[in-house]
Write a structure and sequence with these properties.
The structure is a homodimer. Chain A has about 425 residues and is an alpha/beta fold. Chain A folds into two domains: about 100 residues, Urease, subunit C, domain 1 (Roll), CATH 2.30.40.10; about 280 residues, Alpha-Beta Barrel (TIM Barrel), CATH 3.20.20. Chain A is about 40% helix and about 25% strand. Chain A is built from 14 helices and 18 strands. In chain A, helix 4 runs parallel beside helix 5. At the A-B interface, helix 2, helix 9, helix 11, helix 13 and helix 14 of A face helix 2, helix 9, helix 11, helix 13 and helix 14 of B.
């Protein structure tokens, strides 16, 4: 187990408030062993931070990492068309191993943006897990048995029965969305949640259309009302998006301790709307930040999301003081972490997991120095990420990747898969060829 | 005069349409000498692009480069409070030489974002010019005689009488805004414009408040109606922001060939509103992109502006097909250039000035390759800028600066000035201390 000592850092912590202290920080194995002024400790490696910032890694609260194949593949669709005309036909042609390879392109991008973990919702938990372990990415993999009857028993046996954490990878229970999963399957998911007292996670209230379709199908109940009626959130959980939520739905989320992961870039690009983030926070609902997938964003950049979420609140409320930047910094770190069940790495404190980012204050956007924490939100970008450490391992530094697999290999495998998917969809008779670029 | 040959590039051109060709490109001195497949030419330096993109540098159509002192200095104000309580008091304490030094921090950031020229509106044209020449930044400096009676003659003599271009630096005529300049001074500016048949540039229609204050003061005329009544735009020009424009004002702008520089990040952060960019373009008004100053943005990042302008149009019109990414790419390059009077570097063609950016397709956000041009808009960021060349000189490559002055020197001078300004404003009795962080 190696010990890395960071000297002369500005250590930025986010709980209970955002603070910056001039300190040293010692990583021992995969944990933060000590922080303090001029630490007198032995270490295998000493890194002089030269006054640069060490902060908790960003937690990407909502991701579909394997969807790198869909990046700039077909921009300019509404959510439902985009799903049905582009995404679902391509996904139907994924082969075993594809998801494992495609995920790694996104993992590389997470490193460039200081993202040290992702809440990954996709089709094959085993492949997602394998990708994360191969790569060294901290990943929360969502288990979605709905639609696959055999998976209820399988997941119960494999993951739920005392094996919910597997080193870098942990698991949560959930389903895609109310509008894609039928009633009996939702009931079965809820039953499983009760059996193991598990929180549940899903897409919800992303567009007016999904809300209204639920109202039409379910005796005038809105999605959160309907799902809560199934006892879905009896042990908490979280929803992804939550753009259009009624007062009553917000009340249910607050009461059931269900968090919201907001995805401002994706919600803009698909014209889904602007989530009322500031209202949610005022009501005591925990709100975290996510990028959504590379097909609907298209970048996986927490700096983009941080700027957007505060900029959009200012526009929506016509108030430039809306959603202070320090709250945004917490959304992208500790709030997301806590919703994801990753409290063990939600901040930089002794005993926490060593998921750490170094922000380079010598980039022009960080100069001159006035208010470092707010400036990271308002002016930061990928070029300010000097180092990304996950679980005590430096995987990215000074623009270079220190991953087991070379980026060029990851790219070429992903390109091969993507080209094949596009070719197969284009040649399928029932699809107009123009939709896939 | 050195000759640089770029081999194996994807050359992205933007006029009349966005196109990508696999070509070589030869720079001779400060111009693009030749493009074509496998050029057989001599060169002093050969750069193998390995399939990466060469594209025209971004043109920052609206900037206050010297305002780096105000970055994250006081976030969370409305435009008018921000100007009167924070910015004007600090500006009043600027000393000779400060503007020259402060500008260079922004110039460094432009390089990191592939911005090769800026339309710089600030207080001291001589210092702005000196900064651009010292640094090697292509700069359009706005001459604003209004409020300084002696400057009308000085500018007429120095700049207007046949000396409007000075190598890297060119000049344009303008004024701050209708709401900060009195009637006689506006008349004098318009007279000067007529004398030399010059386009005129100014802030306009940024907030409801500036529009309404104009209506109150000027016989119910809106800003563009009022200014046009003074003959201000008889030779064209441009307005910065243009968030709130009536149909009649849009008609005037179109008729007078006045462009609009939109600044989406600044307009969000100050809660000014969302410009109806797509309507303006449909009406045939030329719209370019700008960052505004580092105090109100706070980043100087054309990738941020490109993403925001299209994302906000999609939200505003509730249509994910609004404002196609290829149009956005033109806004950030040739449209801005043409409004700024920089047609000589609006695209990558033989004979044009060599203001060139190389986009690194080997960054994860650019992978896999599906639609390169749109992906630059939707997923690009500063970390994708592999090289920035201005006037034939490579000033930035692989994250390193090749400027005459070391970034560390530029930073320390700017920090010294900024700290002094904050100290002086804090100790001024009439200002509450809390407003400057």
């Amino acid at each position: 187990m190696s010990r890395i000592l960071f000297r002369n850092a500005r250590v930025l912590t986010v709980t209970p408030k955002v603070k910056i202290r001039r300190e040293d920080l010692l990583v021992d194995g995969n944990k933060i062993a000590k922080t303090g002024k001029k630490l007198k400790v032995e270490a295998d490696r000493v890194i002089d931070c030269q006054g640069n910032v060490l902060m908790p890694g960003f937690k990407n609260g909502h991701a579909h990492s394997a969807m790198s194949f869909a990046r700039s593949c077909s921009d300019g669709y509404r959510l439902w068309d985009w799903l049905n005309k582009v995404i679902f036909p391509m996904e139907a042609r994924l082969r075993p191993g594809d998801i494992r390879e495609l995920s790694k392109v996104s993992f590389l991008e997470y490193l460039t943006s200081g993202i040290t973990s992702c809440f990954d919702m996709y089709l094959e938990p085993h492949e997602q897990t394998q990708a994360a372990k191969d790569f060294g990415m901290r990943s929360v993999v969502l288990l979605q048995p709905a639609g696959h009857p055999e998976r209820y028993d399988q997941y119960r046996h494999e993951f739920l029965n005392g094996h919910m954490a597997d080193g870098l990878v942990t698991y949560q229970l959930g389903f895609h969305a109310e509008y894609t999963v039928n009633y009996p399957e939702l009931e079965k998911t809820s039953k499983l949640a009760h059996e193991y007292r598990l929180p549940v996670f899903c897409h919800s209230n992303e567009t007016y259309r999904d809300v209204n379709s639920c109202i039409d199908r379910n005796r005038s109940l809105r999605p959160i009302e309907f799902l809560d009626g199934l006892g879905m959130f009896d042990y908490g959980g979280g929803i992804f998006h939550g753009v259009h939520l009624s007062e009553n739905e917000q009340y249910i989320l607050k009461t059931r301790k269900v968090g919201i992961i907001t995805n401002p870039a994706s919600n803009c690009k698909l014209a889904s709307g602007i989530a009322h983030v500031e209202y949610y926070l005022e009501k005591g609902i925990k709100v975290g930040l996510g990028t959504d997938g590379p097909g609907s964003n298209n970048a996986l950049d927490m700096f983009r999301e941080m700027y957007l979420v505060t900029a959009l609140q200012k526009i929506q409320t016509n108030d430039p003081t809306a959603l202070d930047a320090l709250t945004v910094l917490q959304m992208a770190t500790c709030n997301s972490a806590q919703i994801m069940g990753l409290s063990a790495c939600d901040d930089l404190q002794e005993g926490k997991l060593a998921d750490i980012v170094m922000i380079d204050l010598n980039r022009p956007s960080m100069q001159p120095i006035n208010d470092i924490a707010r400036n990271i939100v308002y002016a930061g970008g990928k070029d300010c990420v000097k180092m990304t450490m996950i679980d005590g391992n430096i995987l990215y530094m000074d623009g270079k990747f220190y991953t087991k697999e070379e980026p060029s290999k990851i790219y070429s495998k992903a390109q091969e898969i993507t080209s094949r998917l596009k070719r197969e969809v284009r040649t399928a008779a029932y699809l107009p060829t123009r939709i896939i670029k």
